[in-house]
């Protein structure tokens, strides 16, 4: 018996850009990102590049007639809800795309001029041709170098970025997102992006990631925004989601090629896909603890098992026991089930540890005393003790301070961090591991040492 098809309806987005044989930028990055953001990606290729993570080795522009044929084919068949442009290359191509502008809804113009490697991707005479295309754009997304070419302003401050955005809006763009990845503002610890419309100015901030693996970052951002617009998001929501995705894609780059690598276009979808398995691993650890009765390790505040998804950046991206694990007359039991966002203190600690070692995905908090200290000495890794009397008192700050101090003192990545407590806080130890099995084994090893005393 034949099975019935079960079609899925999905919004369609389109990219008009060059091909990157290295897969990190261009059409390849655009389509990966659109798929990750829930849109069906279509394309019109402007040029073919011989490119990898080290740079651009060659470029071949397709005839304009071939570009027009691709655009016509897509628009004739698909109900396109958003379009982004990338590498256009020549004035003729820019003008050709602008000629279709009235048929390109939610047009996001990424004015690609220079590759991350420094290779030029736009003929100098094509720069002025961008004005009309920008005038038809819903959003234009220049970086600092592109902003300087388009407006004559080399942005060095947030005020400069706002002025660039205002000038681009004066050209006719509905909005401009001036990207701050190349702008060194203040102590350079933040990346600041400025979204400007005729009526508003909004600023988006993210901690700067020290990496050279930014190949494809502009393509990924503009594609993510276009995909979100195709789904019906308003402009601000689409930009905020795109900026958040790029921040995570840069934080967890792909180590591919001999060059710096590539941003991780699929990072958010991969992370979402790992949520269920992460919760299952936490549940398995909890069941082992109940079965082996870890009562002697449960602190007065209760025990928790916390598991982070592979690309977790926030406590709500960790799975934990809601209500913690508590002692009973017959052993231990979880108060409720495992859910994401159920832990505060241990989750903040684990997320802070991941700043130093992103492989650390699981943590357990236990009581601490002299007997536990003796048992910790037998663990398969470094144990660090921290006196936290001088730790900051803001929410989450103590946990970040504990993690930072512990990793600063450790020779490598510690398997246990002892907090001797302070006013109103009992002494505890937090056990760390890359996987659920290992964190369970380390906890049970301490439990077994206490039992055999």
Task: From the structure above, extract its key features.
single chain, 453 residues, alpha/beta, UDP-N-acetylmuramoyl-L-alanine:D-glutamate ligase, L-fuculose-1-phosphate Aldolase, 2 domains, nine-stranded mixed beta sheet, 14 helices, nucleotide-binding
Explained architecture:
The strands form three sheets. A nine-stranded mixed sheet has the order 3-2-1-4-5-6-7-8-9. Strands 14-11-10-15-18-17-16 form a seven-stranded mixed sheet. Strands 12-13 form a two-stranded antiparallel sheet. The chain is elongated, with a radius of gyration of 26 Å. The longest helix has 18 residues, at 275-292. Helix 5 (144-151) packs across helix 6, helix 7 packs antiparallel against helix 8 and helix 11 runs parallel beside helix 13. It folds into two domains: 12-268, Ribokinase (UDP-N-acetylmuramoyl-L-alanine:D-glutamate ligase), CATH 3.40.1190.20; 274-451, L-fuculose-1-phosphate Aldolase (3-Layer(aba) Sandwich). The chain has helices at 26-36, 64-77, 91-99, 130-135, 144-151, 158-170, 217-230, 235-251, 267-273, 275-292, 345-353, 370-376, 397-409, 436-451; strands spanning 12-20, 40-52, 55-61, 80-85, 107-109, 139-140, 175-178, 190-197, 201-207, 305-308, 318-321, 325-328, 331-334, 338-340, 362-367, 383-386, 416-419, 428-433. The chain has 14 helices and 18 strands. By secondary structure, it is α/β, with parallel strands linked by helices. Residues 1-22 are annotated as: Disordered.
């Amino acid at each position: 018996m034949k099975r019935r098809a079960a079609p899925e309806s999905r919004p369609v987005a389109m990219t008009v850009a060059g091909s990157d044989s290295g897969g990190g930028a261009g059409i390849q990055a655009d389509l990966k990102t659109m798929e990750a953001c829930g849109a069906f990606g279509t394309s019109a290729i402007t040029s073919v590049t011989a490119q990898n993570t080290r740079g651009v080795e060659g470029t071949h522009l397709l005839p304009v007639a071939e570009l027009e044929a691709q655009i016509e084919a897509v628009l004739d068949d698909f109900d396109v809800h958003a379009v982004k442009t990338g590498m256009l290359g020549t004035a003729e191509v820019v003008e050709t795309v602008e000629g279709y502008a009235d048929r390109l809804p939610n047009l996001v113009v990424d004015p690609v001029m220079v590759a991350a490697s420094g290779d030029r991707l736009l003929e100098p005479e094509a720069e002025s041709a961008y004005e009309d295309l920008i005038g038809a754009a819903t959003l234009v997304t220049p970086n600092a170098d592109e902003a300087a070419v388009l407006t004559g302003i080399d942005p060095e401050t947030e005020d400069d970025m706002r002025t660039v955005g205002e000038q681009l809006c004066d050209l006719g763009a509905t909005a401009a997102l001036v990207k701050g990845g190349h702008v060194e503002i203040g102590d350079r610890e933040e990346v600041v992006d400025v979204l400007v419309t005729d009526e508003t100015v909004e600023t988006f901030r993210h901690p700067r990631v020290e990496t050279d693996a930014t190949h494809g970052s502009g393509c990924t951002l503009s594609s993510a925004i276009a995909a979100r617009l195709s789904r019906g998001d308003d402009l601000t929501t689409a930009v905020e989601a795109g900026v958040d995705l790029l921040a995570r894609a840069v934080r967890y780059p792909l180590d591919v090629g001999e060059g710096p690598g590539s941003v991780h276009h699929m990072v958010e979808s991969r992370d979402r896909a790992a949520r269920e398995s992460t919760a299952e691993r936490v549940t398995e650890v909890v069941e082992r603890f109940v079965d082996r009765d870890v009562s002697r390790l449960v602190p007065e505040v209760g025990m928790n098992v916390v598991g982070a998804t592979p690309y977790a950046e926030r406590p709500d991206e960790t799975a934990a026991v809601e209500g913690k694990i508590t002692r009973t007359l017959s052993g231990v039991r979880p108060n409720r089930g495992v859910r994401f966002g159920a832990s505060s203190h241990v989750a903040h600690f684990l997320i802070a540890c991941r700043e130093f070692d992103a492989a650390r995905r699981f943590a357990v908090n236990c009581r601490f005393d002299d007997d536990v200290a003796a048992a910790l000495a037998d663990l398969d890794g470094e144990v660090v003790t921290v006196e936290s009397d001088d730790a900051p008192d803001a929410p989450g700050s103590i946990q970040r301070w504990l993690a930072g101090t512990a990793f600063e003192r450790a020779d490598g990545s510690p398997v246990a961090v002892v907090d001797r407590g302070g006013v109103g806080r009992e002494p505890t130890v937090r056990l760390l591991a890359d996987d659920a099995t290992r964190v369970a084994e380390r906890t049970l090893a301490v439990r077994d040492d206490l039992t055999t005393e």
